[in-house]
Specification:
It contains nine helices and 19 strands. Helix content is about 30%, strand content about 25%. The protein is an alpha+beta fold. The relative contact order is 0.20.
Length: about 375
């Protein structure tokens, strides 16, 4: 049996709480109680059923503000019968900790808390402020969580200097990847209008799928941009296509396509929307488009935070981290609006959102130690 550390114990306690988004199920109260015992002022900024915790402590001399940010909500576990063990009862097998949220991102939250406790108890923090921001709306719409808290803090004039988001960024082993930014995300729904009819009389109809097909081939082949040194090229992907009545002898009069752009700063939202519509118009389609609110890209230039985190990773694991902007969106995009240095770092992400989500138990203490080292580097006078 793996020795029980404080980080592992707290991670298990968080996993036991079935905090499927937007529920929190007491995760933030557990964290707040521990931080309050270390002198943090803990404030709930809940909104529309979303739980948000903002905790802050000022220490000694004037200095920067370092914030740890993350989420306590998790995605649904899916069919329980496909899990080897209960997704909300942490289990140890073969050197791994299993449970929904083990990797994304309750282990990171536990590591945040224990790293802060150890840094304070050891006297490693002698200047500035240290904070924690947690939400239960990261896996959901992202409207009433971190975005709303950031707005509240900005209205108060709160200055955030550094922010570490505990997303699972490592790819093959702990420490190999830091996210110094994220691509943007732009989703849309295209409805192409044709004329429904009998398949035996195509001259009396206009097949919406036939109208759409040539455009799809063209959209897939377009080079939207070439990206840059930090960002891969913008990609366009179809996710769902629906047409027809279900009958085999009816020409579909309407086709609905769901799609998504993952875009770099080289392609602003308006430019993507304009180019997309231009291709539809060039083919003479009759259509309507519904655009979802976009998630804007962000990037953090090299600075004190990325250097401190990279040095902590090297010292703890011997791994040389690389910076990447790959993967999905995160709440880092909201924090980057007011915080000049935002990076993401956490455990290996191979199992996130999957059945039997897990994290290597041997990663847990090193992860906590990396966070503690970063605290000392940034807030030790």
């Amino acid at each position: 049996m793996t020795p029980m550390t404080e980080t592992l114990r707290l991670a298990q306690a968080l996993i036991r709480r079935p905090s499927v988004t937007p529920e929190d199920h007491g995760c933030q109260a557990l964290v707040a109680a521990r931080l309050a015992a270390r002198g943090f002022a803990c404030e709930r900024l809940d909104a529309n059923g979303v739980a948000n915790l903002w905790a802050l402590r000022t220490l000694g001399q004037a200095g920067p503000t370092l914030v740890f940010a993350g989420h306590t909500d998790v995605v649904p576990p899916g069919p329980r019968e496909r899990w080897t063990s209960d997704p909300f009862e942490p289990a140890e097998r073969d050197g791994r900790l299993y449970g929904r949220g083990a990797a994304d991102m309750k282990t990171s939250v536990a590591a945040f808390v224990v790293a802060i406790e150890e840094a304070l108890d050891a006297g490693l923090v002698r200047r500035g402020r240290i904070g924690m921001l947690l939400t239960s709306d990261e896996e959901g719409p992202g409207i009433d969580g971190t975005a709303r808290v950031v707005q509240t803090l900005a209205a108060r004039g709160e200055a955030l200097d550094y922010c570490i988001v505990g997303e699972p960024t490592s790819e093959r082993r702990l420490g190999d990847t830091i996210k110094n930014g994220r691509r943007g995300s732009l989703s849309g729904r295209l409805v192409v209008h044709g004329v429904q009819g009998h398949v035996a009389y195509p001259q009396l109809a206009r097949n919406a799928l036939h109208e759409l097909a040539p455009v799809l081939a063209e959209l897939v082949a377009i080079e939207w941009d070439r990206g840059d040194a930090d960002f891969p090229p913008t990609s366009w992907q179809m996710s769902n296509l629906h047409a027809g009545t279900g009958a085999g002898n009816v020409i579909p009069g309407e086709a609905t396509l769901d799609f998504n752009f993952r875009f770099s700063p080289a392609s602003p939202v308006e430019a993507l929307q304009r180019r997309f519509a231009e291709r539809l118009d060039a083919h003479g389609l009759r259509y309507r488009i519904e655009w979802a609110p976009p998630a804007q890209p962000f990037r953090c230039p090299p600075g004190e935070l990325s250097r401190a985190l990279a040095e902590a990773i090297r010292a703890e694991t011997g791994v040389e981290p690389r910076c990447s902007t790959s993967g999905g969106t995160s709440d880092g995009r909201f924090l980057a609006r007011t915080c000049p240095q935002v990076v993401e770092f956490g455990p290996v992400n191979e199992s996130i959102h999957r059945v039997d989500e897990s994290v290597g138990i041997d990663e847990i203490e090193p992860l906590k130690n990396i966070y503690r080292r970063a605290i000392a580097a940034l807030l030790d006078a």
